[in-house]
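User: What would this chain look like folded?
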Amino acid sequence: MDRLKDKVAIITGGSQGMGAAHAKLFIDEGAKVVITDINAEKGEKYADELGNNATFIKQDVSSETDWQRVMDETKQKLGNLDILVNNAGITFAKSIFDITVDDYVKIFRINQLGAFLGTKYAAIAMKDQQHGSIVNISSLNGIVGGAVGYTDTKFAVRGLTKAAALELAHYNIRVNSVHPGVISTPMIHQGDTGDAVEQFAKSIPLQRIAKPNEVSKMVLFLASDDSSYSTGSEFVIDGGMSAQ
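Assistant: Here's the prediction, encoded as structure tokens.
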């Protein structure tokens, strides 16, 4: 239970869903974790639940100023940064006929710009120490098509991962992307969606949707030294959906 012993990690969008599962597993594996989220009430409460090895910092991932502040506070409180998980993201299912420019810009700023800023500032923090792991949470819709807006940003995260991996390999900074399929998180349980999710699960080869912790185990692998020769790659966790 010490695959991340003494390592410092930042996990964005860490107060609920997959981010919360990542944070818990990282701490269980010995890491000191900074949880960031736009929702300060949830973030502070969850950090308290996780104990002394969790710190909460409020953050808008689309703000460059916020990224600079998060990095400064992390260094002051915990020292060097070893791991970044760019997990924060939003989605909505709207037709191309209905999506507005404001909708499109909002999802771009959080999903795509947020991942870029995180990768950039993590790389700055990791460069001098000559090691680090950046894990970008994309989606199955970064591999195959889905809703306009969401799919666009998740393909972009995949491309950012590959470009950054090539540039940062010289500094021993690894960058990989994770592509979850349908995961049981608050994001997919918005409104009265229970029946629809249950029906959709029947179309998945493994006949079920995933638990957040199943994704967390992949993220842990990429964050740890177990994946020391993996960079610039995408890791799909979709129950076999993309194999159909």
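The CA atoms of residues 130 and 181 lie 33 Å apart. If you want, I can go into more detail on any region.
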